[in-house]
Amino acid sequence: MFLVKNRLLHISSLAVFSFLFYAFSQLYFIKNLNFTDDIELLIGEGVNLPARWIGTKDVSKDIPILILAGHADSQGLAGAGTSGEAVDKLGLSPMDPDISDELFWNLKLQESIVQLGQERGLNIRSYDPGIRNIDDANDPRTNWSVGKKFSQNGGYALEIHFDSYGHYGVGAGLIPPFHEIPNKIDESIARRFGRFPVLFRGGLGAPRRQIRILEIGKLEGSLEENLRNVKTRQRTIKLLSNAIVKAFLDGLNRHAVSNQKLDGDDTYLRGIYL
Ligand SMILES: [Zn+2]
Predict the structure, then answer these.
(1) What is the pLDDT of residue 204?
(2) Ligand 1 centroid – CA 79 distance (Å)
(3) In this predicted structure, what is the pLDDT of residue 153?
(4) pLDDT at 4
(5) In the chain, where are the structural domains located?
(6) Which parts of the chain register pLDDT below 70?
(7) Ligand 1 centre from 34 Cα, in Å?
(8) From 45, 66, 132, 223, which residue has the greatest number of CB atoms within 10 Å?
(9) Distance 269 CA to ligand 1 centre (A)
(10) CATH H-level superfamily of 39-273
(11) Does the reported pTM lie above 0.90?
(12) Cβ-Cβ contacts under 8 Å for 61 (sequence gap 6 or more)
């Protein structure tokens, strides 16, 4: 009897000890995580270029949305996407030796946006060419070919990117399509992330195909740290995808947008001039 009691006491004190240890270790980790759920801090400063376009065009509530992961088909020497500050400057190992760190995160975020978007009732899907190096941008399997077709059929195609670190990058923001009037989804995303001029770098390959580009933020500092740390990774990806899905939902709710002012620098160009 005495022995049984003693054993019970032993077991319960072990349980109490384990519980306390767990509780304190959690507290310790949370305190040392450096996790920020401030989206503004994570995405950093938005692009600071003159852009005064305003997306005023209404969008049908069930518009098909396509999310593309930037650089998914261009893992050659040029156009592979940024390696990020951690690899390039700090000498850390890439997340996956076969692809750039940018693509690694683009793919993770793409999946999260589509999953969350579907849960929230968006008509949203993703496309991944699977083949990581397609030389010809006009090959029918590339992001851009599929996105172009999707847009031509009345859908909204968005290619997500993380920008380069330091002075190599510009910052967060949306690059609108080249010869289409920006709509209320464009406006909503631009308000959240920032606004690039329509003619940014002479009109990049994607916007010329009516595919929007979203630069989420520079792959550096706390954004990259929070993504790389396995303890904060999921929360960070969720935080970002939630901000993007919310921007879609806000744009589709047709919030009033005032002040339809376009200027010469960044006015969309009509097809006739191109
Ligand atoms: Zn990119």
Answers:
(1) 86
(2) 8
(3) 97
(4) 58
(5) 39-273
(6) 1-6, 8-9, 11, 15-34, 77, 254-274
(7) 26
(8) 223
(9) 24
(10) Zn-dependent exopeptidases (3.40.630.40)
(11) no
(12) 252
